[in-house]
Specification:
Number of domains: 1
Order of helices and strands: HHHHHHHHHHH
Number of strands: 0
Number of helices: 11
Oligomer: single chain
Structural class: mainly alpha
Helix content: over 70%
Mean pLDDT: 86
Distance between the termini: 35 Å
Radius of gyration: 18 Å
Length: about 270
């Protein structure tokens, strides 16, 4: 989860404190992650199942591109909160659409989480930029779709490597389209490589190694710590402000999603 939060901090650092543009950051990040994951698969993977696919690669690219563009104006903690709130809402909504039933407490939790997202984006002095918020919510939907598509697709590290490799031609095309706006900065390039190779490539690999040892409830709930870690990191390393709106929205969104997840995975009484 520290690696996931690190992605938010590195992206915000690069786009706020260096001269790199969002398209170049996205391209370097995805290419670095693809290379790192390819190396991990060659060195460690003993399972040959799963190679990734293009629909998942498109969803992965949409997440990475929206993530980078959103962080041009969003603080790290606010961005992570919007991202993971959107991810969990997307995945929970998919379960409902597939026929999963929600108990009364789960409905209350879902309404609380959605209310927190709406409250965070309402106009006001401390409201995050609207365009950046919409881009981050879209990135969260894309990551939720990517996560749903990846369930049971084979060896997670190998599948993720295949999907990242497929994003390379898409992200190169994006960079070519944005050629007139390309701005490279050595510090920004280093942040992008670190975000791709370490907090994305190695971070995802560690997470997928840990998943088999975690119950579904634990795996889902532990992700709710990411916005908190990102917010704390933003305050410490980037001197970002901690607003009352962010605190209240965090409590509402994280508590609401936790209610849905914990109630959903509560063992049935016999």
């Amino acid at each position: 989860m520290v690696a996931f939060a690190g992605n938010s901090l590195l992206c915000r650092l690069a786009l706020k404190h260096t001269g790199i543009d969002a398209a170049s950051f996205t391209s370097i990040r995805l290419i670095s992650a693809a290379l790192m994951l390819w190396l991990l698969v060659r060195v460690r993977s003993k399972v040959n199942s799963g190679k990734g696919n293009w629909p998942s690669a498109v969803a992965l690219f949409a997440y990475a591109a929206g993530f980078s563009i959103a962080y041009i104006g969003l603080p790290a903690g606010t961005g992570a909160l919007l991202l993971f709130g959107s991810v969990q809402t997307t995945m929970i909504s998919f379960g409902i659409w597939k026929g999963e039933r929600l108990h009364a407490l789960q409905v209350m939790g879902l309404l609380l989480a959605v209310g927190g997202l709406v409250g965070l984006m309402l106009p006001g002095l401390s409201a995050p930029p609207f365009f950046g918020s919409i881009m981050m919510l879209g990135a969260g939907v894309a990551w939720g779709i990517y996560s749903l598509r990846g369930r049971g697709a084979g060896d997670p590290t190998r599948v993720t490597a295949g999907n990242f490799l497929r994003t390379i031609p898409i992200t190169v095309a994006l960079s070519l389209l944005a050629f007139n706006w390309i701005s490279l900065d050595w510090a920004g390039v280093r942040y992008a490589i670190l975000s791709g190779a370490v907090t994305s490539g190695i971070g995802y690999s560690i997470w997928y190694q840990a998943l088999p040892a975690l119950k579904a409830t634990q795996a889902a709930t532990v992700q709710l710590s990411v916005p908190v870690i990102a917010a704390i990191g933003g305050i410490i390393f980037i001197a970002e402000p901690l607003t009352l709106r962010l605190v209240l929205a965090s409590i509402a969104i994280l508590s609401g999603i936790a209610l849905v997840i914990l109630e959903k995975n509560k063992p049935k009484e016999t």
